[in-house]
Write a structure and sequence with these properties.
The protein is of the alpha/beta class. The protein is about 40% helix and about 15% strand. It has 14 helices and 12 strands. The protein has helices at about 10-25, 50-60, 85-100, 110-120, 125-130, 140-155, 200-215, 220-230, 240-250, 305-315, 345-365, 375, 385-390, 415-439; strands at about 40-45, 70, 80-85, 105-110, 160-165, 175-180, 190-195, 230-235, 320-325, 330-335, 370, 395-400. The strands form 2 sheets. An 8-stranded mixed beta sheet has the order 5-6-8-7-9-12-10-11, sandwiched between helices. The longest helix is centred in the C-terminal third of the chain and has 22 residues, at about 415-439.
């Protein structure tokens, strides 16, 4: 069964031409890969306690301004909002907040300094980036991630292999690591992906950490042996490779894909987590191409999303767990994102989520909240987890918001890659063992 986009050839050509014209009028933003400067940008945490304050912040979030970026969007009274503002906009924002009596604190004083501190001293050490045992000491370019995946396949040829399930808009591979043993055929499947939103660098590292532990601990840890003998594992560390690469070369805070849009302002890309076909554009998404939550012209307009959906649908009867990794907030989220109501099966989903977060907490004391996307975070339609559960029928479908809760935000220091990976691995192992008992 294949998934069609229903987008006619003529409309597709029109979109591409329109995007090309807009980019030409604006100037080629990526030429020379000049890095976007975030010096003196601040990140504020706001605490709206009245409906009018929430409405005001929602209006700001919906208004395109490249110097204001809502990291955690408005989600109701007495629920915090995180927003990054330039030095120019800070004066305006401070005046608005004061006039509307919205309380807040500064989470990050200077975004550029936070970016510089993120990688740590190891980033400049070529050995640490290329030496296999120290791979998790720093964040990596897409090429290095793909090299590491192929290295794992070469080190464990009886357990691991890599293959591409499709190409991105700019022609990069959607490289998947398959981990499996030959103990059984047609086994139940575990799917894990990271790198949906380009700026969430901890997620590809965390996905790879799980792969590393699965392979290293096989035949050492009896539970891991059971998990590899009992499941096929498919891990896609970077499902938005164009955006991820762009976040390294040009704009550290880029979120979307890099496809052309119909924007006259030259805005590019679609939110990969608003582009899935189930309840597409039913709230918590935007029809504005300049918005960071732009849903696209139609579902599956993005080749990355269409390729992943086709891969999952071809195996949907065997996929027992669908995990998509995001950051930040420390949450283990269930469907729905498109509606506040709870779906059938929510009790079981929550039970398994609680098993995972209790195990996760046992390692370093890190607390994760559990609940549905719309009730715990905010409304977000057209997401992969809603599609996985609502369309592909995968009962245990979860969105994970990894470390932290805002001190570092998207700039989690590299020295937290391993601790974050270890606690996630502990949770995933407990969860997959619990699900295995129910099969």
């Amino acid at each position: 069964m294949r998934i069609s986009t229903r987008l006619s050839y003529n409309l597709h050509v029109w979109v591409l031409c329109f995007g090309w014209l807009a980019s030409t009028l604006r100037g080629s933003e990526a030429s020379g890969h000049q890095r976007k400067n975030y010096n003196n940008y601040k990140v504020l945490r706001l605490y709206p306690d009245k409906e009018q304050q929430v409405e005001l912040l929602n209006n700001l979030a919906e208004t395109y301004d490249p110097e204001i970026d809502f990291w955690i969007r408005p989600r109701g009274i007495n629920r915090s909002v995180d927003v990054m503002v330039s030095a120019n906009r800070y004066v305006m924002m401070h005046e608005i907040l004061t006039n509307k009596s919205i309380q807040g604190v500064i989470l990050i004083e200077n975004v550029t300094r936070a970016i510089e501190a993120e990688q740590g001293s190891d980033r400049n050490n070529k050995l640490s980036r290329r030496s296999r045992p120290t791979f998790f000491y720093s964040y990596h370019l897409l090429k290095e991630i793909h090299e590491y995946m192929k290295y794992l396949a070469s080190e464990y040829p009886k357990l691991a292999s890599t293959f591409s399930i499709g190409k991105s808009f700019e022609g990069r591979d959607l490289l998947v690591l398959k981990i499996n043993t030959s103990k059984r055929s047609k086994k139940p499947i575990i799917w894990i992906d990271g790198g949906t939103h380009a700026r969430e660098w901890i997620t590809p590292s965390s996905a790879l950490y799980i792969a590393n532990r699965l392979l290293n601990d096989y035949e050492i840890d009896a539970n891991v042996t059971k998990l590899l003998d009992g499941y096929e594992w498919y891990i896609l560390p970077v499902m938005n490779p164009d955006g991820y690469e762009y976040s390294h070369t040009t704009d550290r805070l880029w979120r979307k894909t890099r496809s052309w849009t119909i924007s006259l302002l030259g805005c590019r890309g679609v939110d990969p987590n608003r582009n899935w076909s189930f309840k597409w554009n039913h709230g918590g998404s935007s029809i504005s191409p300049c918005s960071d939550i732009y849903a696209g012209v139609i579902p599956f307009s993005e080749p990355e999303i269409k390729a992943i959906a086709n891969f999952i649908v071809a195996r949907k009867n065997r996929v027992k767990l669908f995990l998509t990794l995001h950051s930040y907030s420390q949450m283990w989220l269930t469907p729905w994102g498109w509606a506040y109501k709870q779906p059938r099966g929510y009790t079981d989903q929550l039970e398994m989520a609680n098993i995972a977060v209790q195990s996760l907490k046992s390692l370093y004391g890190t607390s994760f909240e559990t609940g549905s996307i719309s009730n715990l975070l905010y409304t977000a339609s057209g997401g992969s987890v809603d599609w996985a559960f609502g369309r592909a029928g995968i009962k245990y479908s979860y969105t994970l918001e990894l470390r932290d809760t805002g001190k570092y935000g998207f700039f989690l220091p590299a020295n937290q890659i391993i601790p974050s990976g270890e606690e996630l691995w502990t949770a995933v192992k407990a969860l997959t063992l619990a699900i295995y008992k129910k099969l």
